[in-house]
Structure formats: structure tokens, C-alpha cells
Design a protein that fits this description.
Helices cover about 50% and strands about 15% of the residues. The chain is of the alpha+beta class and about 140 residues long. The protein has one domain: D-amino Acid Aminotransferase, Chain A, domain 1 (2-Layer Sandwich), CATH 3.30.470.
Length: about 140
């Protein structure tokens, strides 16, 4: 019952945040664990990997016309994989994504970030040492 209450509150808050940005939080998943007797929320929440969003001001019209909703989620990646013969079955290899497709995936994730947060996404310079950046971020986090 406690997890159900936490889940409902998280979904309500996510719905409120999405609505302020003109989005509908359609569905999501939350992952919980326990440390001792304490329930702990684990993994990301309300991201394109765990949630689906529709664009609010297009919803009614698209629904009335029987058109699919514009989805802001990772569903388009799943559809691409299936269209390219990959279904996650044992022994299958993930098809190679072109740099152009990888870039389009990044752009869609950035679009969702900007729509949900209302903030412009700032890319790190291409020249930046990615491993050093990760190390610095982890070290800064550990100092908290």
C-alpha cells in the first residue's frame, strides 16, 4: 500500500509538471527497492526511457480524427529496431545505427528535455574529454 501511495503521488507530480509545459504524461514506470525497511525510488523517472508524453494542444484533434498521437518517448527507437528486423530475441544482433540516425535520436531526446523542463539544452563542446567530464561529475557528486 505504501508503494502504491508513493507511485500515485509521483505520477500526480509528473502530470502537473508536464501540464505546465503543454504535455500529457500518458504512462510511466517507477522502480523501487528497499534499504532495510525504507522504500527507495531507484532509476530515472519521467524520462523518455521510462515514460510516454503526448502534446496536449494536439491531443483532442488527433484523437477525434483517429490519428496517432505525437509521442515524446523512446518508442520511435523501438519501432526503428523492429523495422530493421530486431526484436530482442536471443541470438539477434542489434542493427547498426547510422550516425545520422543516432543524431536524430539525440535531437528527439533533447526536444523532450526542453519541453518537460522548459530549459534550453546546452551541449558540451565536441572537443571536451568525455571520460574526464564523467570522472569530474562523479567526483563532484561524491563530495556532496
Amino acid at each position: 500500500m505504501q508503494i502504491e501511495d508513493i507511485t500515485r503521488k509521483l505520477f500526480q507530480r509528473g502530470t502537473e509538471i508536464a501540464a505546465k509545459q503543454g504535455l500529457i504524461l500518458v504512462d510511466t514506470k517507477y522502480e523501487f527497492g528497499k534499504i532495510g525497511d525504507q522504500i527507495v525510488l531507484m532509476d530515472e523517472i519521467h524520462t523518455p526511457d521510462s515514460s510516454r508524453y503526448f502534446i496536449a494542444d494536439q491531443y483532442e484533434e488527433r484523437f477525434a480524427k483517429g490519428e496517432p498521437q505525437v509521442q515524446l518517448s523512446k518508442e520511435f527507437v523501438r519501432e526503428w529496431l523492429m523495422a530493421n528486423g530486431f526484436q530482442g530475441k536471443e541470438g539477434q544482433q542489434v542493427p547498426e545505427m547510422t550516425p545520422e540516425y543516432v543524431n536524430s535520436v539525440s535531437e528527439r531526446y533533447i526536444e523532450l528535455y526542453e519541453k518537460v523542463t522548459g530549459h534550453k539544452f546546452e551541449k558540451a563542446p565536441d572537443s571536451e574529454d568525455l571520460l574526464k567530464r564523467i570522472e569530474n561529475n562523479v567526483m563532484n557528486y561524491l563530495k556532496l
